[in-house]
Design a protein that fits this description.
Blueprint: E1 15-23, E2 36-42, E3 47-53, H1 57-64
Antiparallel strand pairs: 1-2, 2-3
């Protein structure tokens, strides 16, 4: 089941900033499961915070990066 069924959108990610990853804050704890790591995605129009389970963060970032950029952690 998908909440608020809408057509998927594409976001152009210029940079993934892993310099200061964080866990969820106290206010976010009500709506985000424990163990989430938050990184910043820099796009042409905004900076987004992206929460991913800590055990999957490396894989998730590799999925966003073009081949060869995964080792740097930045895109």
């Amino acid at each position: 089941m998908r909440f608020l069924r809408r057509a998927p959108i594409t976001i152009d990610v210029l940079t993934i900033n892993r310099d200061a990853p964080r866990t969820t804050g106290l206010r976010e704890a009500w709506s985000v499961m424990p163990g989430i790591q938050v990184v910043r995605l820099i796009t042409p129009t905004a900076t987004l915070e992206w929460g991913v389970p800590a055990a999957q963060i490396d894989w998730a970032i590799e999925e966003l990066l073009p081949s060869g950029d995964a080792a740097s952690g930045r895109h």
